[in-house]
Amino acid sequence: MPETPGAAAWTAVCVERGLEPALVPAVARYLELLERWNRVHNLTAVTGAEAWVDRHVLDSLSVLPWMRGERVLDVGSGAGLPGLILALADPGREYVLLDAAAKRVRFLRAVIGELALEDVSAVHARVETLRPDPGFATVVSRAFAAPPEFVRRAGHCVAPGGRMVAMLGQSEAARQALPEGWFYRSVDPVSIRGSSASRHIAVIERGSA
Q: What is the pLDDT of residues 14-64, one digit of tens each?
């Protein structure tokens, strides 16, 4: 990756990697800001411009079909993955990006302001302390915790009739027993361009299978 790729360079990478044209300007600006902040705050260890688009942007977009309802909580959002990327592609919903690290939340708020995202907010808190009223229709996580731990720590944030969506690697991760009262609604494989790694989306709901 060049030291300072700039918007034009990021735009070219996004186009080359097959990103939907309507998303390219906002995503390129996001990546430009991420590259700038990453030099100081170490927001991602992934290297290479193409890898950033494949492993951050395209990977985040892969979970979009599983989003439901008007309000989505991204737990452990980090650099805004997947929540910020989903918000760019899905402006009809409210997205709340939650992270326990202040530096990450500062970055997220800078991007939200720069891109003028009206229905997106970043919250600095641990999910265990969050008491949303009402709850969220979808609570999503990417590399936050194994499914049982995800449910234990964030299940209280799910609105009645809502769902939890976990982005996983191997499907075996979804064979771990969930806390009582929760079950796997589905575990679906997804394919990410530029990656041969196994990826799965687990949907977790209250009730009995």
A: 999 999 999 999 999 999 999 999 888 878 877 778 888 988 999 999 999
Dist. CA 98–CA 79, nearest whole Å: 10
> What are 205's strand-pairing partners?
183
List of E strands, the chain: 71-75, 94-99, 120-124, 136-142, 158-168, 182-190, 199-206
The H-or-E segment that residue 37 falls in is: helix 24-41
| Domains of the chain with CATH codes | 54-206 (3.40.50.150)
Q: In the prediction, which pLDDT does 1 show?
A: 39
Buried b (16+ CB within 10 A) or exposed e, 101-117: eeebbebbbebbeebeb
The average pLDDT across 171-197 equals: 87
Residue 10, token pair as written in the block: 């990021």
Look at strands 199-206 and 182-190 and give their pairing. antiparallel
Residue 28 contacts by C-beta under 8 Å, 6 or more apart in sequence?
7, 10, 11, 13, 14
CB 146 within 8 A of CB 176: yes
- 106, 50, 125, 114: which is closest to 88 by C-alpha? 114
Q: Compute the C-alpha angle 138/120/16, nearest 5°.
A: 90
Q: Distance between terminal CA atoms of the chain?
A: 47
DSSP 148-197: HHHHHHHGGGEEEEEEEEEEESSGGGGGSPPPTTEEEEEEEEE--TT--S
Helices and strands in the chain: count of H runs, count of E runs: 7, 7
